[in-house]
Structure prediction request, 328 residues.
Amino acid sequence: MLRSPLAWLFARAAWGPAWTTGGLALVLLALAGLGQALSASSVVPGPALLGRLALGVVGSVLPLALAVGALAGAAGGVARLREERTLLGLASLGLSPRSLGGLCAVGVLPVVVMYAGLTHYGEPLARALVRDTRVAAAAAVSPREGRPVRLGSWWVALDEGALVFTDGSRTGRADGWAWAPRAGGVLAELSGVDLTFDGADARLETLSLPVPVGNRGKVHVSERTTPDLREQLLRSAALGRDAAERWLLWKRTLLPLALVPLSVAAAGFARRRSPGWIVGALLLGSWVAVRLLDAQEAALGPALSGTVFLAGTLATAIAAWWRPGVDR
Prediction:
């Protein structure tokens, strides 16, 4: 099937939309993600840290860009064949345009493999890189006299050579200080500390306080690769709070698999509709379905939630090709 003339025609028609739309999606998503990361950072990182941050952001949005490119290729390829009257020519020769659905299902498999590799390993590592870069940028904060700067969840400044700090609930003054990066935050090493907390004052010779930098200083489950997440599941299961983590593990496989029926659906709808609307509708519909299942996962369980999601994508693919023929 992949060596047939139709397969080469479809590949030629789909290649351009897939690369163009996927590349544009990657650039836009990366710029939005980088802007969000910078707005949440304590300070603007230097060139080296900014490059690391950009690399992490690109890796974290690459799976979605791949999905956009795959759907755009499927829909755009069929739309181009329709505009060139190739589909009508196939019908006049007695060949069913539905064979394009099978071509999409087979042709998208390499993307599915890449998508799965990214969701299980690449994306979590990229998210961890973003986290660690933000922590490194926070640890590089240098307090200034009379000019408060943000250090994670703290505000710090110098007052006559001493460090003054607050996190909204604690206020203090320290004669000496140093920052040490940690996973998810910064460890503040203070000396000669006058601390006010819950209306009480205390004088401490030394004090070590964690300063959260995003996600309350914790390593988020989305920042753990699948082997690491499996180990975390064992600990969470013992505490009876593993439902969300187990569902995340399932989604790392379900979302790549769903790309097969969604690509078939995109090709089927493109016989009569604009590719842009099709890709947008399928992505939005998938996002809404996943969010709804996120809310109901505790009641349904990951296996049933995954079955419902894949069944919905298969039903969409069948509906896309249910009506025969091609619009002129």
